[in-house]
Amino acid sequence: MAEQDIPAFEQIKAASEGNGPIPTSCRDAGTFVHLHVHTEYSLLDGACRVKELARRAKELGQTALAVTDHGVMYGAVSFYRACLAEGIRPIIGCEVYVAPRGAMEQPIPLTEEGAPCCMFG
Fold first, then answer.
1. What DSSP designation does 58 have?
2. Residues 48 and 83: beta-carbon distance below 8 Å
3. In the predicted structure, residue 97 carries a pLDDT above the cut 60
4. What is the pLDDT of residues 10-53, one digit of tens each?
5. Nearest Cα residue to 62 out of 24, 21, 8
6. How far is 50 from 117, CA to CA, in rounded Å?
7. Residue among 90, 91, 86, 94 nearest 118 (CA)
8. What is the pLDDT, as a whole number, of residue 82?
9. Cα(92)–Cα(64) distance, rounded to whole angstroms?
10. Three-state secondary structure readout of 82-113
11. pLDDT confidence of residue 1
């Protein structure tokens, strides 16, 4: 069986037992997952079409993919369905901004409190 056909955890286990090469990166082990992805639903920030995104993730051998559109989740259902159709595990998230002093305040620089964060469910 070719190395790329072995699931990542089996490859890592074999390497730890001295029965195979040690993966040099997450991509080599087949465990790389994009956790910060904007799709066509992130207005003015994302251009990825969800169906093509899921198809490409599968082509690259990824087993999971996240969506973290800006402050919206109305693309979650189409993303979920596209991932399932390609055999990819969907991870639903959203990039949100926390405004500790109120929504009407100017954004706080990233070096201070209130930086953007991604939330996954």
1. H
2. no
3. yes
4. 766 676 677 776 655 555 545 678 888 999 998 888 888 999 99
5. 8
6. 22
7. 94
8. 97
9. 11
10. HHHHHCCEEEEEEEECCCCCCCCCCCCCCCCC
11. 46
**Enclosing H/E stretch for 118:** strand 117-120
Q: What is the pLDDT of residues 69-96, one digit of tens each?
A: 988 999 999 999 999 999 999 999 998 8
Q: Hey, what amino acid is at 61? A: G
C-alpha 24/C-alpha 28 separation (Å) is 6
Residue with tokens 């490409």: 56
Q: Nearest 5°: phi and psi at 9?
A: -65, -35
Are the C-beta atoms of residues 53 and 65 closer than 8 Å to each other? yes
Model pTM score: 0.65
Whose structure tokens read 């994009």? 34
For CA atoms 119, 41, 106, 34, the dihedral sign is: positive
Percent of the chain with pLDDT over 90: 33
Residue 105, amino acid? E
CA distances from 116 to 35, 43, 51, 88, 94 (A): 14, 17, 27, 27, 10
